[in-house]
């Protein structure tokens, strides 16, 4: 009986250690969506100058960047067509906006489950000296396959000095269990002007 008890204890400890190892294996890697690192799809539209490009991601995923009327969408999929059909490809912020070209991939071991990207949202109520709107920065957390690709959380980068840490924690805590189309996008930390602009309807 003692031998059986010892074996059970050893198995339990192994499971606990395995859980700790999984928790410790969460980490970040980075890719670029700069035009030079991506493949442009077709030519810019003669009507509105809209563009699309596909950029290499992680674990066999690609990133689709579409720009139309000074607004961008960012989606992820196993190929361009799959990325274009994801919920994230249907999300447009109302004000003019753009995304930065560095994507942070949050992963458990070798499997990414979310991306984090910094966006700039134009604020028409805050013009610069030339009359152009200044932009406000926000981090967007997006969940990845398996399952749909959609926005999970927004973190205002100006209102929260620790915005990067908040975004990583939101990705780790919420992305894998987030139900696209059912759960509301979470506002993490202090709600600032960028989040206000991005959620205007």
Protein architecture, described:
With 201 residues, this protein is of the alpha+beta class. Helix content is 23%, strand content 39%. The chain has one domain (27-198). It has 4 helices and 10 strands; from the N terminus they run H-E-E-E-E-E-H-E-E-E-E-H-E-H. A hairpin with a 7-residue loop joins strand 8 and strand 9. The N and C termini lie far apart (66 Å).
Multimer state: single chain
- According to DSSP, the number of beta strands is 10
Global geometry: globular
How much of the sequence lies in strands comes to: 35-45%
Question: Could you give a short description of this structure?
Answer:
This protein has 201 residues and is of the alpha+beta class. Helix content is 23%, strand content 39%. The chain has one domain (27-198).
Q: What labels would you give this structure?
A:
201 residues, alpha+beta, 4-stranded antiparallel beta sheet, 4 helices, 39% strand, disordered N terminus
Topology:
Elements: H1 2-24, E1 26-32, E2 39-40, E3 51-56, E4 62-68, E5 71-77, H2 80-84, E6 97-108, E7 111-127, E8 133-143, E9 151-156, H3 163-174, E10 186-188, H4 193-198
Parallel strand pairs: 9-10
Antiparallel strand pairs: 1-6, 2-3, 3-4, 4-5, 6-7, 7-8, 8-9
């Amino acid at each position: 009986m003692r031998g059986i008890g010892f074996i059970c204890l050893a198995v339990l400890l192994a499971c606990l250690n395995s859980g700790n190892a999984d928790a410790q294996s969460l980490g970040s890697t980075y890719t670029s969506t700069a035009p030079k690192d991506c493949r442009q799809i077709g030519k810019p539209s003669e009507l509105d100058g809209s563009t699309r490009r596909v950029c290499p991601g992680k674990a066999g995923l690609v990133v689709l960047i579409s720009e139309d009327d000074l607004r961008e969408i960012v989606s992820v999929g196993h190929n361009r067509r799959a990325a274009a059909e994801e919920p994230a490809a249907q999300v447009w912020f109302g004000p003019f906006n753009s995304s930065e070209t560095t994507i942070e991939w949050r992963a458990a071991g070798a499997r990414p489950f979310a991306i984090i990207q910094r966006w700039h949202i134009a604020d028409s109520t805050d013009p610069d000296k030339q009359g152009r709107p200044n932009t406000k920065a926000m981090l967007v957390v997006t969940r990845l396959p398996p399952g749909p690709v959609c926005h999970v959380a927004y973190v205002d980068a100006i209102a929260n000095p620790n915005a990067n840490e908040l975004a990583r924690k939101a990705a780790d805590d919420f992305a894998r269990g987030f139900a696209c189309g059912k759960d509301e996008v979470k506002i993490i930390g202090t709600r600032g002007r960028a989040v206000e602009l991005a959620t205007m309807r």
